[in-house]
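Researcher: I've got a protein sequence and the SMILES for flavin mononucleotide. Could you write out the 3D structure of the bound complex as structure tokens? I'd like something to compare against our soaking experiments later this week.
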Amino acid sequence: MIQTIRVLYKRYSDALLKSTALGGFFARRIKLGSGVSRPQIPPHDNHGFWKDLPKGFCVLAPMADVTDVAFRRMIAKYSRMGAQGGGPAVMWTEFVSADGLASKGREVLLRDLAFTENERPIVAQLFTSKPENMKFAAHLVASLGFDGIDINMGCPDKSIEKQGSGAAHIKNPELAQKVIRAAQEGALEYAQEKSKETGTTVEPIPVSVKTRVGYNKVELETWIPKILDMNIANLTIHARTRKEMSNVPARWEHVARSLEIRNNHKVRNAQGELVQCTTRIIGNGDVTSLAQAHDKIKQTGCDGVMIGRGIFGSPWFFDSAFNAEHDLTIRRRLEIMLEHTRLFMELLGDIKNFALMKKHYKAYVHGWHGAKELRIKLMEAQSVQEIEGIVAEYCVNEKDLVECTLARAQHHTHIMLNK
Ligand SMILES: Cc1cc2nc3c(=O)[nH]c(=O)nc-3n(C[C@H](O)[C@H](O)[C@H](O)COP(=O)(O)O)c2cc1C
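Model: Sure. Here is the predicted complex with flavin mononucleotide in place.
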């Protein structure tokens, strides 16, 4: 898995280097290279939609080359996002380089920032170590209509850390604070411009951070207060250190401790008074079902839980009223997989490799007798047409089996084996 993450992060950062000129399209907004001025503290607790989320929410993790525009649309549809019992409560984009967005080559990156209304609330995740680029990118993200900006301060990939971004921020809290403040300023600046233009008050979109519990060792007591001092709207804590990558089980006791730190923390409000910190805290790591997420919320007191790898091949994951094992036939499962593949090709086929879909196939085609043989064929396919052909053939050859749910398929297999 780590290898996969590395490859994905690498591929992603390589894409950043592929510049295409867009002229000075966005240049009018903020002068690049200008320093970030003395922070202007937003005139209110700028926590946007975060403050209204009822405690106990579940959100979708940002995952490069996984939670892309196609998969997010599938999740919004099949998890009934926005409807009662549906979810997730918040979506994240994949991480996007603020340096890339601030460059002339931003065009490819803007494709990663496409979203539909059904995905709201949605936050754009950015990374950089350059405050001026963060300010520019935050302004741009606000102008695109996002509900929030999230800053990646946990990515362990070497190519990201080399830029001083991702987990490298844990080693330099002062710079991390400047980057956060720059994002808040970019959002505020856009809101002020928009307010002037429309004659109504436009609120700046909130800023959040996603990080780990420390770099080489647990550093909650020093690192978390530095972040909370910035009065951010939400802090997501991946319950491992940078050094641990994903090699050890997530340690949720660190999420519980972060809650205590938050509860004892004071921040300055717009009037300069010290007030209780109200930053929401989300825990993250190794959660694979909604039931597990709710257990974590009970055990740690965290406001919400973020789910990453648990959603591979399960766009229905966040629908609390839906039990795929009992409610979904294998045929329907395969149809949804095809729908996902076609959407991926339609939206991203010209810029992303078809092979990226294969990690989803592994998860869609799993849990019944004969799934492995089908999976092997799908792994060898090179195009959407081949995938369609393989699925059609399977549905003809296994016409009884594909009408079963996974729960019933176990039973079906039992009868077939005993015939
Ligand atoms: C393929 C992959 C890509 C990822 N990309 C990002 C990313 O773009 N931004 C980020 O903050 N974390 C990223 N992560 C980390 C996840 O958001 C999450 O913190 C991690 O997978 C642990 O949660 P989980 O156990 O629920 O998967 C990625 C993880 C994976 C597996």
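Model: Residues 173-198 form the longest helix (26 residues). The two ends are 40 Å apart (CA to CA).
Researcher: Great, I'll pass this along to the crystallography team.
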